[in-house]
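Predict the structure of GTP-binding protein rhb1.
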Amino acid sequence: MAGRDAMKKRKIAVLGSRSVGKSSMVVQFIENHFIESYYPTIESTFVKSVPYNGTEYHCEIIDTAGQDEYSLLGPKHAIGIHGFVLVYSVASRKSFDMIQVIYDKIIDFCGVIDIPCVIVGAKMDLKNSRQVDSADGERLAAANNAAWVETSAKDNVNVANVFELCLAEIEKRAPRSQPEPKPSNCLVM
Ligand SMILES: Nc1nc2c(ncn2[C@@H]2O[C@H](COP(=O)(O)OP(=O)(O)OP(=O)(O)O)[C@@H](O)[C@H]2O)c(=O)[nH]1
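Done. Here is the predicted structure for GTP-binding protein rhb1.
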């Protein structure tokens, strides 16, 4: 009999400052094209079956509205999230600085010390306007026990890796004896 493992469900929330490229990254992953224009997101949910490590994962990817330091985590918005993708633009130091702020809000809200998380340096094609070195991104991820990758939705570089890394972070924390990891019950709005 095909068990639950044949199609595991995973909810992934994509968070970060405004205009860092969250929607473009998700749309490139789901629909394989790049959005040139900027349309601020309210919230969109996408689904995709993602093969990882010999298993098909039914991923629900929640593309959230851009965050700032005043955005609040509200219990009314809390839903079961298994993994977090925190996105900054390599061309915006401010968006990079927001990553720790968002990370800490999630940790505080969930009352945990560690979450399955991938930190993403988006827009790596913008070589001439880079404000964040790769080494800074790697250091931030290491300090927070998170995975890290740089991407370009425009050139479709490393976009699929983001979601594979996120599944890896989720699965790393899932006890082998239990079929489903406990959702972290958090969503930053
Ligand atoms: N050069 C370049 N531009 C990008 C890339 N990804 C996104 N952009 C552009 O950046 C702008 C913002 O992209 P969005 O994907 O809408 O950003 P967002 O983070 O979803 O924005 P919010 O909805 O406000 O949170 C758009 O004009 C995109 O075309 C990329 O990889 N390279």
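Helices lie at 22-31, 93-110, 134-143, 159-172.
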